[in-house]
Amino acid sequence: MSNIYDVLVIGSGPGGYVAAIRAAQLGLNTACVDKWKNSKDKTVYGGTCLNVGCIPSKALLESSYNYERATHHFAAHGVLVDNVTVDLAVMQKRKEKIVNTLVSGIDGLFKKNKITALKGSATIASIGDICEVTITENGTTETVQAKNLIIATGSVPRSIPPAPIDNKNIVDNEGALAFDSLPKKLGVIGAGVIGLELGSVWNRLGSDVRVLEALPDFLAAADTDIAKEAGKLFKKQGLAIETGATVTQAKNTGKQVAVKWEKNGETHSETFDKLIVAVGRAPYTDGLNADGAGLAMERGFITVDEQCRTRFANVFAIGDVVRGPMLAHKAEDEGSMVAELIAGQKPEIEYDCIPWVIYTHPEIAWVGKTEQELNAAGIDYRKGAFPFLANGRARGLGETDGMVKMLAAADDDRILGVHILGAGASDLIAEGVLAMEMGAASEDIARTCHAHPTLAEAFREAALAVDKRAIHI
């Protein structure tokens, strides 16, 4: 215990490894500990996002979309392809290669920034001017000391009693990324981000997919106009989405899963080859001794202030284990903020400017307030929308579904929200985030030259439409 670290980060997901790197950049003696094991029982860094979340899911989404394009869209371009088949093993190997490359990249970044990489399960032993944490790995325990702790232990998939996860026939997101054969019939519980993305992967590859959502409205968190249009497009693609459907039983029969659900007082049943449980995620603090160490907790989350500080001045918590959206980029920003606070700087995060993205096709992305939120709050606003159908670049790409919608304050024209359904929405939303961070008005976007022909022109046209002066509609 002779080495006392300036900062010890517990967890190496997007929040944890970014916090460690930023702390090291600022000259702080930094260590990061994680217990994540890959399929070869090797401790790796990167957390859920890199290993079984954001990265592998996007790899499979891209592979499955390429198959869909080849089988359904190439002909419109005069590209004729016969006998297109899927080699799922190759697709999975590509996914694993991407994951392994990025995980190795974290190792390289730790070495480059002289971060001590520790392996094992971390338990907070005591909190004081010098905090002590015990790390257990393969039956061996060591104690490390640090002046500051950053807890970035992330989250785990939520489960529900009617559908116990075995990751064979009834699977969570990790199991759904590892199918070695195509399910003929696939059930998905939950029409949120994870459910829609994973449902899309297997639907494109040929599975008959039914999504069961307990809430009465589809994508209730998204802007109503965007959600309605997205629902129509997903139905056209073959995703059967049942809202107001509460699953009451999922019985693994050995080779299949028999599912019962209730909707409008009636009981329905269907048998699936696989069932994905995608009902959200829960903060993960198992083994951390958060309660015992004196940290305040609420509904499983570690309680923090707006700067991610716990009730102890030198202990912080970030990412999925604290309040706010469970988004990797939110965790990254919190990691950087906390490292800079420890170094004596004065960073801030504008939480209203954190974007959301659903990587379906077309993609869905938004930042700021929805129209229904503004109405509920009694805030006067103006709105403008522009369809990709009227965008030249979208026509050339054959990606004419969706729109850009902009909401601006009625009094000073400040942008209050941007909502996009369409190809490249995950990238286009960055312009909305930047505009809102800078306090821009819709007029600022309307008077900014956008290259032609680009999808981004739809963004400018939406801003013009706020003042009822869009050019191309």
TrEMBL record:
Residues 354-463 form the Pyridine nucleotide-disulphide oxidoreductase dimerisation domain. Binds 1 FAD per subunit. The keyword Disulfide bond applies. Keywords: Cytoplasm, Disulfide bond, FAD, Flavoprotein, NAD, Oxidoreductase, Redox-active center. Residues 5-335 form the FAD/NAD(P)-binding domain. It is found in: Cytoplasm. It catalyses: N(6)-[(R)-dihydrolipoyl]-L-lysyl-[protein] + NAD(+) = N(6)-[(R)-lipoyl]-L-lysyl-[protein] + NADH + H(+). The active site is a redox-active disulfide bond. This is Dihydrolipoyl dehydrogenase. It comes from Candidatus Doriopsillibacter californiensis. The gene is lpdA.
